[in-house]
Design goal:
The complex is a heterodimer.
Chain A (H helix, E strand, L loop, with lengths): L2 H8 L9 H36 L5 H5 L6 H13 L1 H40 L3 H9 L4 H35 L2 E2 L2 E2 L2 H4 L3 H25 E2 L7 E2 L8 H18 L8 H36 L4 H12 L1 H8 L1 H21 L7 H38 L1 H9 L4 H35 L6 H33 L8
Antiparallel strand pairs in A: 1-2, 3-4
Chain B lengths: L8 E8 L1 H4 L19 E8 L4 E5 L6 H8 L7 E6 L2 E2 L5 H10 L1 E4 L11 H11 L4 H14 L15 H13 L5 E5 L7 H17 L3 E5 L10 E5 L4
Parallel strand pairs in B: 3-8, 3-9, 6-7, 7-8
Antiparallel strand pairs in B: 1-2, 1-4, 4-5
Classes of the chains: A mainly alpha, B alpha/beta.
Chain lengths: 487, 237
């Protein structure tokens, strides 16, 4: 039997079959995750396209890179505008910086984007363990089972990416309201074109396929009962040492630099290195930090909900960390954005000068990137939390039967997200302040950047909480579908 | 056992029709669900006295678990009433029924009722903490139960690190930890071999008797428990 025939067998409409609701909704959650990621990715790509459109005389990349590829009339018109208008000339000088910054935002968002694909694929594989195990028992090969699940995941990604295109169009009018380079974006500037759309849909589907295959490598589906998850040992303690050495080393290097005096290219490289480096560093020690916090709370839990939540975190600290790690990146972006806003407000001279406009635009772009990173982190966390609740539905159902009130379970699930979330915000906040301090001097002692930083972090925090709570409630409702027990 | 005393639990004319409980028919094909069909429970009457053990027997699909769930207030029957100490379970708000299950009933299922992330001592302490007891006191009481059942060495072990028999013993300790008036046991030895099953059943009965708890036991095993009254032999519907 071919994999496709097997897939069709499992996707026939099953009217009135109890339990199929949760599988359908798991699919919906995964599709939603892919849709959100695609919409945000296309929106950021649209922004990048907009800056290229503005910088290039005939609005093409080829012309931007090499003037010999430009249309002669467009190039002549462009040169004429620059020669006659000082403002246009100023803007042309900064055009490449805008493109670099937009590219930088795209690269930054690739991290949470890729982080979302993994859990979405894991979600595709969840709740199918028993079915896949039964298939193996019936004689299906490991290859068939893996292909079946990967195919499911790829289809969900495809559906999500197509919905994401609709989301991109829906977001476009909102982006058009924003002002960059003292002008609003137009549809032509934000429209990435059909080739980019097709490439994005194909890319998202391929990414999901690869993520599913990588995920399934860790889930050995045996014919005996449920899939046997291979244990995940805690990372080596050497990581703590690497973290400490890296932070001290970075502090020593950064103390001898002054970001404000660096050239634009160097400044962007430093900021990018700082954000990605910090993100990598806190991921290095994240699960340790979560374990330590959960252990301390599990020692004398105040109530049953705390006990359940902390034990669940300790059961798999890596999973708990992954649920919220995306917020770490958002915290760093919030740190950088708040400093950029300060520089923007400090820039003296004509408010319409290209310098001042660029600093202001960096602040706006930073806030936008922060919002997108926050939304991606929230979706990622919500999807992972849902997958976790659905996977644990049997135990939670049993607790409800035995008289555990729903409020206690809700509280337990909430704390399961809140504890690692607080840890990541604290860890990323301290790292970000510590490493930015040598570069920006006493900027964080001033109320403006501090309020901006705290506000940005609070926004992401709230987004993740809302996402997690909403996903929790939905998943819990689905997981509590009662099975008929008339034997 | 004192059968002259007032019954602690009574059920009158219990009827359970899963098709009627389902959503309203949406298509012509769904109408089939409302054609004449067998009921999971058909006007069942039941009484349970304090300290009494009742075995519910019957083939698979005959409605044993449905009866147990209806008696414990887990599901609401289509018709009929269940009264615990004179109070109608169906008339209680859900929160009150939940509290009743937590404080007055104990449950032992075939498997899977222990939380896999919690060590044995915390699994037993959990219902006590849900009732508001502080962690230190709840775990101290849980340790006493573990000692009583000879499971003290398993205190820090999680369900995945225990055998099936050990898990069921911990589940029994958990059910008894709240000093329940009634223990509902749904094929508690169904996943165990005969020797271990009998040992677990003996432990359950002895512990229930020592705590003066009544037991409603769903079982396939006609030989256990030897002292049980068997008022309800469910037939395949």
């Amino acid at each position: 039997m071919s994999t496709f025939a097997l897939w069709r067998l499992f996707h026939r409409p099953a009217r009135g079959v109890r339990g199929s609701d949760s599988a359908d909704s798991t699919t919906m959650l995964a599709v939603f995750a892919f849709a959100a990621a695609t919409a945000i990715f296309l929106t950021v790509l649209g922004g990048l396209h907009g800056f290229i459109w503005r910088a290039s005389p005939d609005h093409t990349i080829a012309c931007l890179l090499d003037e010999s590829h430009c249309s002669a009339t467009a190039l002549a018109a462009h040169k004429h505008v620059i020669a006659t208008s000082a403002a246009a000339a100023d803007q042309a000088n900064y055009a490449s910086t805008y493109i670099m910054l937009a590219l930088f935002a795209c690269l930054l968002l690739l991290v949470p984007f890729a982080a979302l694909a993994g859990p979405a694929a894991r979600l595709a594989a969840s709740r199918r363990d028993a079915r896949l195990a039964a298939l193996r028992l019936a004689g299906a090969t490991t290859g068939q089972v893996v292909r079946l699940t990967a195919f499911d995941s790829a289809l969900q990604a495809l559906a999500g990416a197509l919905i994401g295109i609709a989301g991109y169009f829906a977001l476009m009018p909102l982006i058009m309201l924003l002002t960059f380079q003292n002008q609003h974006f137009t549809f032509a500037q934000l429209w990435v074109g059909p080739v980019a759309l097709v490439a994005t849909v194909a890319g998202v589907t391929l990414l999901a396929l690869l993520s599913a295959l990588l995920t399934l490598r860790r889930v050995a589906i045996t014919p005996l009962g449920v899939s046997a998850r291979q244990g995940q040992p805690l990372p080596s303690k050497i990581r703590l040492l690497i973290f400490a050495v890296a932070v001290i080393g970075a502090l020593a290097i950064l103390s001898n630099m002054q970001l404000i005096n660096a050239g634009t290219g160097a400044m962007i490289a430093i900021i990018f290195g700082l954000i990605v480096g910090c993100f990598a560093l806190i991921n290095l020690v994240g699960s340790f930090a979560v374990t330590i916090r959960a252990r301390s709370r599990a020692r004398r839990p105040r109530n049953a909900a705390t006990m359940i939540a902390m034990r669940r975190i300790l059961d798999n600290p890596k999973r708990a960390w992954r649920n919220v790690s995306g917020i770490g990146l958002a915290v760093f972006i919030a740190g950088i954005t708040s400093v950029c806003s300060l520089f923007g407000s400090l820039a003296s001279g004509d408010p319409n000068s290209a310098d001042v406009i660029m600093m202001r635009d960096i602040g706006t772009g930073g806030l936008l990137t922060l919002a997108f990173a926050g939304v991606l982190a929230a979706v990622s966390s919500g999807v992972m939390q849902s997958a976790s609740v659905i996977d644990q539905s049997n135990e939670y159902n049993m607790l409800v039967l035995e008289g555990t009130d729903e409020a206690t379970l809700r509280k337990a699930r909430f704390q399961e997200v809140l504890t690692p979330l607080n840890t990541v915000v604290l860890l990323a906040g301290i790292c970000s302040l510590l490493l930015l301090a040598p570069l920006v001097g006493n900027a964080f002692t001033q109320p403006g950047p501090l309020i901006s930083f705290v506000g940005g972090v609070a926004l992401c925090y709230a987004l993740v909480l809302v996402g997690a709570v909403a996903a929790n409630r939905t998943a819990a409702r689905l997981a509590c579908v009662t099975a008929r027990a008339d034997d | 056992m004192n059968t002259t005393a007032q019954p602690i639990l009574t059920a009158t004319d219990l009827t359970m029709d899963y098709a009627a409980q389902a959503a309203k028919p949406r298509t012509a094909q769904d109408q089939g669900a409302f054609a004449p069909h067998p009921l999971a429970l058909n006007r069942v009457n039941f009484t349970l006295h304090p300290g009494e053990t009742v075995a519910v027997m019957g083939p698979s699909g005959s409605g044993k678990s449905t009866l147990l769930h209806a008696l414990a207030g887990i599901i609401t029957p289509t018709a009929g009433t269940v009264q615990f100490r004179g109070a109608n379970l169906a008339a209680m708000p859900d929160a009150e029924r939940t509290a009743l299950r937590r404080n007055a009933f104990g449950f032992v299922f075939q498997s899977g009722q222990l939380l896999p992330e919690l060590p044995a001592v915390e699994n037993i302490a959990l219902p006590l903490m849900l009732g508001g007891m502080p962690y230190a006191q709840a775990t101290s009481q849980a340790v006493l139960w573990l000692e009583r059942f000879g499971l003290r060495p398993l205190m820090a072990q999680r369900p995945g690190e225990m055998s099936g028999g050990q898990m069921q013993r911990v589940a029994i300790a958990r059910a008894l930890s709240v000093n329940p008036a009634i223990i509902f046991a749904d094929e508690p030895t169904g996943a165990l071999d005969q020797t271990t099953g009998h040992a677990v059943m003996r432990l359950l009965m002895d512990a229930a008797r020592a705590n003066n708890a009544s037991v409603v036991l769903v079982t396939h095993d006609r030989t256990w428990p030897p002292t049980a009254r068997t008022p309800c032999t469910c037939a395949t519907a």
